[in-house]
Amino acid sequence: MAASSPKPTSSRSAPDPLGVITKAVTKNVKRNWNLTRHLLGIDRAEVGATPRDAVWSRGKSVLYRYRSDDRTVRPPVLLVMSLVSRAYILDLQPGNSFVEHLRDEGFDVFLLDWGIPDEDDADNTLETYVDNHLPEAVAVVDRMGDGSGVTVFGYCFGGLLALLYAAGHPADPIRNLVVMATPVDFRHMPPAMSGVGTAGIHPEDVLDANGNVPAETVRAGFSLLTPTADLATYADFWERLDDEKFLDTYRAMTGWSRNHIPFPGAAFKQTVELFNDGNGFVNDTIVLGGRRVHLSDIEVPFLNVLAERDHIVPAPATLPLADLVGSEDVTELALPAGHVGLIVGNGGRTRCMPAMSGWMKERSDVVEPADG
Description:
Radius of gyration: 24 Å
């Protein structure tokens, strides 16, 4: 019998026990320091840092234009936020900002910030925003964009406002319409959102002495819906705590999720009546300003962006949109993200933002850079 060949020796060096221990200790030191930073609020990253200028205002609403020397895409984009969330989520951090992404892609970027309502705004209705502020802001954006029209982009409840505006003002200079994570079929909204109305809490019982839904109540509702689940679960938070970039993003996100603003009382009561109780988009029963408003009157190119892991606006709540609008050019974009992961974090930067800006670019014009 032939002698067996000796087993080859591995060229891989044996682990260095001291090196392994040193690496683990260093990682834990970073974790503990970053946890201290997080708990004490030390060295928080700046949010909403992209340079901008206020170009119009009405009441608490302010229209901002972001500075750029490379505006090569027409029409300009108008970002429309929710009434109850801080607008800086769209411009969270340098390198982690939807505004920054659009600007760097050559878009002329505007943002409509509704401000923080107080007792003077308790009587603001949906018409205040949809029939007054939005048409004026769009006219300003169109004029500053040399009359090329406007791509209106609404996020969450801002998308609901954008839909109402576009449906009620079809003659306005809307070139394209994009809504992202926008509730439409309220039968599929979570109880924390849909539990006010005839089937639950009376809307008057939610209002404070100013006549608005207080920020604390808004925040309590959102806290049940884990908007930061995209970035990390509590189970792996400690494991990633040595990564300062992750921690900065997590702190900025959690700061935003706990920093809501009051909901104007009259608009809130309308929302409950029209959508929580009436499911007005799906049933085509919306009346604003004494007139019927139909989504089928929206005929511009339309993009509906939904997040497959959305805890706040689940995908079934936004799916009917493609069949409700009257546009011939309709795109439904389902992305593997959560409500905020569409525009925050690595997945937002590498997958979601390029997909949305790409759709808009395909329906825009490329021009020479404009001055100013």
